[in-house]
Amino acid sequence: MGKKKVLVVGGTGYLGQHLLQAYYASSSSSDTNGNGVSSFDLAFTHHSTPPPKLLLHAIPGSIPFQVDLKTGVGFESISNAFGQPDVVVNCAAMSVPRACETDPDTAHAINVPSALVNWLQSFKEKSSLLIHLSTDQVYEGEKSFYKEEDIAIPVNVYGKTKVAAEQFISENYSNYAILRSSIIYGPQTVSPVPKSLPIQWMDGVLAKGEEVQFFHDEFRCPIFVKDLVNMILALTRLWMSEDKQIQLLLNTGGPDRVSRVQMAEAVAQFRGYDTSKIKSVSASSVDRGVKSPSDISMDITRLVQTLKIHPVSFKDGVRLTLEAEAKN
User: Fold this and answer.
1) Fewer CB within 10 Å: C terminus or N terminus of the chain?
2) Which residues of 113-128 are buried (b: 16+ CB within 10 A; e: fewer)?
3) Which residues form the RmlD-like substrate binding domain (predicted)?
């Protein structure tokens, strides 16, 4: 039995970096010289060049590949230098809703992983498991606690491209787990990502002691990044141990339905900031250049029953995030 091969598509992004570190740590042992050795062979794709040195240093032995997800250029290099992966986790996406609205063609080309699926189908051996990150924004947002069987009626281009991706995968590939993720939050990555992270951003603005406006009428079920990573590791182990077909669609969120106001209050309460500085406003009062669903909270019963993982409460996730930031 050789090492199992794992490919993280979008490995330099927020979730991708956390995942690579977890795959490496979950299976590392030490060689005779005391160096860490992973029982997974790890590879990751990146779009910009070169891949960050801090990430490469944190995951020794991982192989970076530059890939254009729109055209598929670069996948052949993975075939030649790495071979067929046992598991592929697709974290890559054009995920800023306003950017998708401005350039729907590019959003569709990146978010519908046709080049990735076609490449995986080129292998003649047993199929790889594709774990694909989708979004809670496939839902219309007109009720609370959506279930997986509820009809997906996205209200913006981003959501529409993610529905198209789910349909493409389920119609064209035999082994997959599609994870409809909510807002992902948690500690910064080993090679810091340029985008602002939700808890850290809220902490930064609230620390100034000035009044800040937050929406009271948009609801999500944010998920702590380490919980999401553990779910993906659990799916990986399930696939590698049971050797049977997997076709899963899972709502992937935390247990709490919260508004932006409630998120900010949780940060303020942990830090001891003045919560009276948090001003509640309606989402309709701000033009964000894109329609946003009001309530896309999700029922995660199927997730918990399938993977036997109970995600942490939002309050605990905030504490874990800010404690980790303090250590860094």
Assistant:
1) N
2) bbbbbebbeeeeeebb
3) 5-324
Structure tokens at 107: 């959003």
Looking at the chain, the whole-number percentage of residues with pLDDT higher than 70 is: 96
Compare 266 and 288 and report the one with higher pLDDT: 266
- Would you call 41 helix, strand, or coil by DSSP? strand
Cis peptide before 50 (omega within 30 of 0): yes
Q: Is 252 helix (H, G, I), strand (E, B) or coil?
A: strand
Identify the burial level of 311 via C-beta atoms within 10 angstroms of its C-beta, where 0-12 means exposed, 13-18 middle and 19 or more buried.
buried
Strand partners of residue 132: 90, 178
Per-residue pLDDT, 38: 63
| Residue ranges in 88-156 assigned as alpha helix (H) | 97-102, 104-111, 114-121
Q: What pLDDT is attached to residue 94?
A: 94
Mind listing the domains of the chain with CATH numbers? 4-191+222-255+297-313 (3.40.50.720)
Averaged confidence pLDDT in the chain: 94
Give the up-direction half-sphere exposure of residue 179: CA atoms within 13 A in the CB hemisphere.
29
C-alpha 109/C-alpha 94 separation (Å) is 9
**pLDDT tens track for 195-241:** 899 999 999 999 999 999 999 999 999 999 999 999 999 999 999 98
- Per-residue pLDDT reduced to its tens digit, 145-186: 999 999 999 999 999 999 999 999 999 999 999 999 999 999
Cis omega (within 30 of 0) for bond into 104? no
What element of type H or E holds 28? none
Maximal CA-CA distance, the chain? 62
Instruction: Calculate the CA 169 to chain-centre distance.
Output: 17
* Residue 228 structure tokens: 């999401």
Q: Is the pLDDT of residue 30 over 60?
A: no
Looking up tokens 């009001």 gives 294
Give the span between the Cα atoms of 306 and 311, in whole angstroms.
13
Tokens 């209200």 identify what position? Answer: 155
